[in-house]
Design brief:
13% helix; 158 residues; 1 helix; 5-stranded antiparallel sheet; alpha+beta; 3-stranded mixed sheet; single chain
Length: 158
């Protein structure tokens, strides 16, 4: 009886540990070690819960290809944890950039969308603009990064 209860308790705990180890996060998607003052873009994302993957993407200026692979500099993926999470991008040259982030709650490596193409999962941009219909423009999310780097905070919205 005691052995059976222990086995049932172990099974109840197994799915959480198994889910964490099964997240498809690849080595090249790792965040850099944060070193303020080195030209990094440091991004703190608020509103994250402990399930799935947090994806944070850095973009260079583009009128036509914002939020598309063509203008993306780098994508970081990390296991989502409860509360604010901070990731850092490698040093970048001073200039204009934008960051987009989403909480991939089901860990399918994709931002799920509603029928109107708006995000179904929590999403945010570097300037925290209110989302409208359609894809936001780079100018709605851009910021100027000085030589020493920048720290920004993004609030996820659903």
């Amino acid at each position: 009886m005691i052995l059976r209860l222990f086995s049932l308790a172990a099974l109840a705990l197994a799915p959480a540990a198994l889910a964490e180890s099964e997240l498809d996060i690849r080595d090249y998607e790792a965040a850099s070690i944060c070193e303020p003052g080195t030209g990094q873009v440091q991004v703190t994302v608020e509103g994250v819960t402990a399930r799935g993957i947090l994806a944070v993407e850095l973009y260079h200026p583009s009128k036509r290809d914002f939020l598309r692979k063509k203008s993306r500099i780098h994508r970081i993926r990390v296991a989502a944890e409860e509360g604010p999470q901070t990731v850092c991008f490698e040093p970048q040259a001073p200039g204009r950039y934008a960051v987009a982030t989403y909480h991939d709650e089901n860990a399918n490596r994709d931002l799920d969308q509603k029928l109107n193409l708006m995000p179904k999962e929590p999403f945010g941009l570097s300037t925290n603009p209110k989302l409208r219909w359609g894809i936001p423009k780079f100018d709605e999310a851009d910021f100027e990064m000085p030589e020493e780097g920048i720290a920004i905070t993004i609030r996820l919205v659903k």
